[in-house]
Please model this.
Amino acid sequence: MRRHLPVLVTTAVFVAMFVACSLQYPNFASTRVVANLLTDNAFLGIVAVGMTFVIISGGIDLSVGSVIGFTTVFLAIAIEHLGWPPTVAFAAVLVLAALFGAGMGAVIHYLEMPPFIVTLAGMFLARGASFLMSTESIAINAPLYAEISSTVIRLPGGGRLTLIAILMLAVVLAGAVLLHATRFGANVYALGGSRASTEMMGVRVGPATIRIYLFSSLLAGLSGIVFSLYTSSGYSLSAVGVELDAIAAVVIGGTLLTGGYGTVFGTFIGVLIQGLIQTYISFDGSLSSWWAKIATGLLLFAFIAFQQLSVGLSRRGRRMAGVTAP
Amino acid sequence: MTLRLPRSGVPQILALLVILAINWIVSPQFFDIRLQDGRLFGSLIDVLNRGAPVALLSIGMVLVIALRGIDLSVGAVMAICGAIAASLADSHSLPVTLAAALGVGLLCGLWNGVLVAGLGIQPIVATLILMVAGRGIAQLITEGRIVTFTDPALAWIGGGSIAGVPAPVAITAAMLLVTLLLVRGTALGLMIEATGGNERASTLAGIGTRAMTIAVYVWCSLCAAMAGVIAAADILGADANNSGLWLELDAILAVVIGGTSLFGGRFSIGLAVLGALIIQAMNTGILLSGYPPQFNLVVKAVVVMAVLLVQSPKLAGLSAALRRRAR
Amino acid sequence: MPPDVSAPPLLEIRGLSKSFGPVHALEGVDLTVRAGEIHALLGENGAGKSTLIKALTGIYSRDAGTVRLAGEVIAPATADEAVAAGIATVYQEVNLLPNLSVAQNLYLGRQPTRFGLVQRAEMRRRARDLLAGFGLTLDVDAPLGEYSVAVQSLVAIARAVDLSARVLILDEPTASLDANEVEVLFAVMRQLAARGIGIVFVTHFLDLVYAVCDRITVLRNGRLVGERETTGLPRLELVHMMLGRELSEATHDRAPAADEAKGPVVAAFQGVGKSGYLAPFDLTLRRGDVVGLAGLLGSGRTETVRLVFGAERADCGSVAVDGRPVRLANPREAIRHGFGYCPEERKTEGIVAELTVRENIVLALQARRGILKPLARREQDEIARRFIRLLDIRPADPERPIGLLSGGNQQKVLLARWLATEPRLLILDEPTRGIDVGAHAEIIRLIRQLCAEGMALLVVSSELEEIAVYADEVAVLRDRAHVAMLGGADVSVPAILAAIAGETPRAA
Model:
């Protein structure tokens, strides 16, 4: 049970917050609010899934916000200025993002450099590249964009589940399966436990590391596509600081920032908690948006302190379980 | 043993000279300095003046990094303290304003230090909390607006000069001097290097690592607070959203360029400041050469990668092997 | 099952050589392991055991020599290839992943999958079956880190054997196990040998060698000294093979018993202990006396000295220094009372590798003086030079980073660090562990000299012969409690051994 305690606590916090909001605002508990919560945080949810992998493996990816920004600008220029079909632009940008992530992973592994610094360079590079393409906000008017944003599943109670929300749920589901039910996922945890031991146990650490950062950048690219669909534009300053939100969501979701432990589901709840805070503030009307940052900071503190406590506790009392001579 | 850029200072000085030379090529009047209204002007002075906030941050950051730590919150602390200074400037005297801003900076440092040294939370995680919440707190102080002020006393900190030297440069130089005195004039430097190199051994040798760690985080935040006040004084207002944004990364970069390893241990405060000047010289050079300022980021990425390559243990091993073969 | 002597050897290494630059780590070493035997690989530190293992398992390339496995020449270039060929290794520090489940640890990288998905139920079932063969019944879904080091070692062995079941190399697997756990490990080893696996067992403990091994190969300074049957090899001869000298000098050169009046008490510990860490103990340390702490690994020796030094905070008992009650809540306070402590873990708790010899020497003295009273560089140089000369630290360069010195010289620098503070009580935890013979003798000479100069010493050592030579009193520990205090004529190897084994009534 102790293994699942962080996720349970996160979920309990979310449920408690949701109930509290519903008690204060009678029309809060509706499919409309829930659907909007999913839609508004779709891009964050997608990128946070990738961040979960990176953090569990003991790394960090500071470049994701910049990759999202780059993606939106790239799409805007490719679709609006160059006249590419959106689908081709999507595919191209995903390939670019994946290559970018693989490159960072390769540098981290082969040059044995700390992920913090490598992805910091990646952050500068991706943001700089998007500035070089355009510093203006470019509206995207492709018919496909209108089509996608009008495609919704109507829920009972007036909720409109958008395509991007569904995409986010699918990514969460796929991410969970990948992390918890494949060899690759086990390797991600293994790397977070000990890189050296993982290597000793015959796992090829290099390809695994490259795949992890590739996956994170790929999801950042996908998140960028979702972001451009969500805003129907491309802007080099979009998604500044999203890496922080993603890291916060992962930590609030019960993943240990030092690596080795964590779940995709927890991250999903972490994203929803951040979204819920925003929703509450917009419902309230009188509260200002900066409270969201302060609340997120407080939550971060609470969860980090909680993790510190539970790690300290689990160090005590190791099992001396049933050892008998054969 | 961890690898890093050399701390002899030669490569850093060479790098700075090369960048300055390039700046001179793209802008021949780069080295022109003139005295106007009792204050020095010129591109070179501009590099020093604009580089002052990051240099200030790097003075504190280098100590934190030497202790195997990192402080991600310095940008947010800048925003908080700048907001406080700007909000108080017109209604209070300068000493009160400064005391309030620096006092809050001290509290921020205390918070970080207690989380790291008291609760044993990883520095990158512990300071992330203030990095996220800090900007919210700054906006709380400014109530989401850009707060402006007109108090000439505070404005002097951003735009004034002492004996021709711009006030931010003078303040940074003074801070550097005080820090050097505190760290190298006492046994603190040795204690920090020992603790960063091996904390358990240092504790067993009788070093009060916990109090020292807290003190270093406090000092780092104080430097950030001062940088925040300068940034606010410079624009005669506080922008909680953008003040100090991403400057923590510049400060970390400056420290790394200065040859201090992210894995702690040996450090050089002077070279960290030199690193900050290198970064600013590049920024200024890009502006002078007519490229859009956004080009900065790309150049910075290249610099980070160059530093990475130089620091890479793999490459170091490779070049050592090549040298052996050459013999 | 006795190994089949007539069959061809399972593993045959001939003429293996490996150099690191000018250093010959291995020169023409042979090793022969038969199927079903447990073969001890012995040698002092630096003899070449670990180089041999790494050259065998593909971690190092080898310069010369052949390796045959069941008659076929193999040349693994990576650890994976060695495993694939049938050579598996379990290292001293269990190289598994404490955050993964037991089952994932057993099958990492080779989990049973269907359509790319890990079949958890199947993996769990296989894990349970595999562990049952080793007498282990574990919750295979629990993180490995929740189990003791002993269980983790057994899981590591289970994984290694399951991966490739021909040759199993155990590199110091017993270092952190207690006696019961060692018995379990031995049972597993015997069972594996009975299955026909050849086991190479690297250890420092001769008792274990005689308890479980069929044959012994001894290395010294990178060369083969000899290969013998365990039965029929007298212990003294084995030690002679390993050390190249007999211990007679050490064992017979007992210091004359101090007949004169005992020195004044420096520190007295009464009923000091910490629940779950070490049972309360009494200890009196006098000027000019050496108190030895003896016991098996994990018996509470290091725990005792950590409590004495304040590195661990006691939760009961009282401490008096010079007859006045004091509190020892942390090392700083202990140092203020004139204590010094050279820890057992030199690398992780002693040296600051990056700093110079000079800086390492002045560290404790500087810490005691405080940050605001820095030692002038001139004074530092003087102190460093004095101790480099006094302790014959080599190379005699005060500005060399200490990480570049040999283990013995690092140990001397740590001694110098404390001697510079002119301590009244010096605590040495395994001062001679992992250092070469020459430095070894010097450190023992130094211990005697210090105590002659009136210092109180508290020394932990696994080398009972050594303790018997220099200790005035020996506190014996067992199962995290002080069980006997031997003094006078009782300070002898047989008496200490008897006390460790529990043949004397509890004294404390």
In short: Residues 170 and 313 of chain B are 38 Å apart (CA to CA). The radius of gyration of chain B is 20 Å. Chain B is about 70% helix and 5% strand. Chain B has a mean pLDDT of 89.
